[in-house]
């Protein structure tokens, strides 16, 4: 694997921290707390889960910080896996991300944006094209709504902005990250000043069908929901090659961004449960909108809708920015088609990889079935989180002379604890949602024959060129 400095280092510290925080804070914080309450049983247990999940996220970020500072290259996790385990593991990771995980995630985020845009423009939800057909004796219907088409168009527009330069996309990310945090901060201030809530809510367990007993299974599901809300902290590693002074900025941005998001999430959840009684909080699936309605009346729904739009826009931009560097890095190393390694001669961005990612993500958005694919692909994300963090230990042993401007705090306990907890989470998910876990493992495994076929094709092409 060779390192090339073809991409411009255009992300400063604030741009880097906005990639971390901007891709972590998405739609989940506006939705999952009520689901977590229904599973955990009491607000205090929910808050404890947010703290534990935040700590686990920070442990992962500390390991990634060492790798990002020592190996500041585009592609992030792919590069780390390549160095620690070899080209085969690197290919499997990139295959999983490019074919489904990252591209379907981008499609899901874009559609979340359009769903909330439909709050102001209801016509977006209308079906304007429908086609029925029969294939192999089975009847199928394809229907397109404004939300689906709008999601695909949004992906193309933001991908185009990312092609225009990392400085532009970094500036967009910074502006919208500040805006989304400001919206959440406003909600916190309003709730604690004019919310007329009660701290007794945190000690109250109401007798309602929505609240469960908070058993092991329920707490596990609530933990998965929290980790989904924290997901995205790893995205900075994918653009580490474009961060100014990565030896300092990558570790500081990863740690600061993770701590910032954890603080915001915990404060927002305190507000949710301070304003709403537990039965009210557990009964709604739009807890932020319900809190805003209590605080601002009917205008509260519009306030939250605007906040979600801002939040999702920044998350989508950050995901497109980070995700495109994976196929670029693989193509650069000869593990993906060579054209994906092309760098725009003027803007110095991986334009071909951005375009290819946009096409696949756009197809998912148009299909309308990406939610199921993405939900199942989450399992694969944590497989690689564990493998990458274990790579910190492997590379300490295999490459002791590697210049490490930052060394993981609490080594080796911190990475070991993260790997063990991630393994426990994967095992729990396997038994609790076996079909989804098996689907994800099958998706990863499909990259094995693809890898050998790719190597065979490369050898055949090379021999043909030598004749």
Report on the architecture of this protein:
The chain is mainly alpha-helical and 467 residues long. Helices cover 71% and strands 4% of the residues. Strands 1-2 form a two-stranded antiparallel ribbon. Helix 5 (87-117) runs antiparallel to helix 16, helix 6 packs antiparallel against helix 15 and helix 7 (166-194) runs antiparallel to helix 13. It starts with 12 loop residues before the first helix and ends with a helix.
CATH architecture: Up-down Bundle
**Stretches with pLDDT under 50, minimum 5 residues:** 206-213
Per DSSP, the total helix count is 19
Task: State the end-to-end CA separation.
Answer: 26 Å
Using DSSP, what is the number of strands? 2
Q: Largest sheet, if any?
A: 2 strands, antiparallel
- From the spread of the alpha carbons, the general shape counts as globular
- The secondary structure category is mainly alpha
Mean pLDDT: 82
Radius of gyration: 22 Å
Which strand order do you get reading across the main beta sheet? 1-2
Could you spell the SSE succession in H and E letters?
Answer: HHHHHEEHHHHHHHHHHHHHH
Number of domains: 1
Return the CATH class. Answer: Mainly Alpha
**Portion of residues within helices:** over 70%
Q: Tell me what portion of residues adopts beta-strand conformation.
A: under 5%
Examine the coordinates and then state which fold CATH places here, giving the name of the CATH topology. Amino acid/polyamine transporter I
What's the CATH H-level homologous superfamily?
Answer: Amino acid/polyamine transporter I
